Please model this.
Amino acid sequence: MSERRDPFRGFVDSISEWNRMREYGMYGPEPGQEERRRTHATAWIPTADVYVREDDLVLRYELAGVREEDIEITLTGGVLTVSGERKSDLNEEEVHFYTRERSYGYFRRSMNLPEGVDGGKINASFDNGMLELIITGGAVYPEPERIRIGGQAG
Model:
């Protein structure tokens, strides 16, 4: 397999969280999302793997305990967002926790996809708590166009 450039080199998912917090502070919750406010106690970010299989880009999200109908996947302006909610099946008024390590509530992960990816090239499957998105041809993208100073592209 030939050496591939990594389009996610230097990518830090916390940047999307910082942007979300900044937007929330400036504009408040997204319209219709007021009831979905995330707090320190309910916010969680699912773990993800991003890798290449032949010419396809594959994203796998660990969503244990999340029902398929509680997951939303959107693509806007080259930004793929996976969001949803993991709900507790316990009546919290009837139980007393000695320790609680699992996080519940709303989540959102956003990442920029390589240039040229459209929603028609993305296939999603969900099995046994694992969401897998396969972006057909997502690992193949054009070389950057070089611009000469004082001249034209080329």
